Amino acid sequence: MADARLKAALDAGSFVVAPGIFDMISARVADGMGFTALYATGYGTVASHLGVADAGIATYTEMVARMGRFAQSCRTPVIADADTGYGGLLNLRHTVTGYEAAGVTAIQIEDQEMPKKCGHTPGRRVIAAEEMALKIEVAVEARRDPNFLVIARTDARTGLGIDEAIRRGQLYRKAGADIIFIESPESEEEMRRIGGEIDAPLLANNVEGGRTPILPAETLKAIGYNIAIYPAVGFLAVSAALERVYTHLLEHGDSNALPPQESYGFGRMNELMGFPEVWEFERRWAREAG
What is the pLDDT of residues 219-228, one digit of tens each? Predict the structure, then answer.
């Protein structure tokens, strides 16, 4: 079942900041920090699972299993990337029912041609707006729980311009999308246009080094946005940290002189992964067996 708290937060006018999660360590860390929602990034999930580019290579079966694991292991509502829905209308219906059954709270579907490409990268092509509108109608009809939210993303800005992106956002809202996601606007002025011209809850995608300026939450809310996702912030930080500590190990031959801030701490990691409960279980059953 979808978690009703995300829809309730949006209905109440709260601004939602959602960090990107990409594996179960990032999910467990983020889940304990008090965010309203977590964003299960396609880029990061594909990278951590397969070690390849987010270019339409991962299958529905692979992704629903990963997204379901995030949702079932986290107390926080999970927003999940579902690319294009992994095919046509019938595939999309299967994707929506599968993601909902897996415990995801919101599903993101985009209007790219297959195979899709990561947002903020060149060469993205989109399907006809009317075809995408049908996909949204199918998605809305397929869900069982009204708290399960459908996010419609358009990648039209980069190839077709901001006017077409806004037109598509308006059309997708009419088709029944709960949240509109205009990918990669290229200026604050464009973001203000989106906020002023699309009457729907809006999602801002904040990618460090991407095509869109990263605005403060207060500014985003003031110009009409409701959700800010940070899909890359986690895996970019982790990659940089790994490079630093691996370089130290290569150069020094041991980890003794690593600064304390470079280590999460073995004891803390044991707690994060639930070892205290395991140890308590083993102690209790050792007494029972004795």
Answer: 999 999 999 9
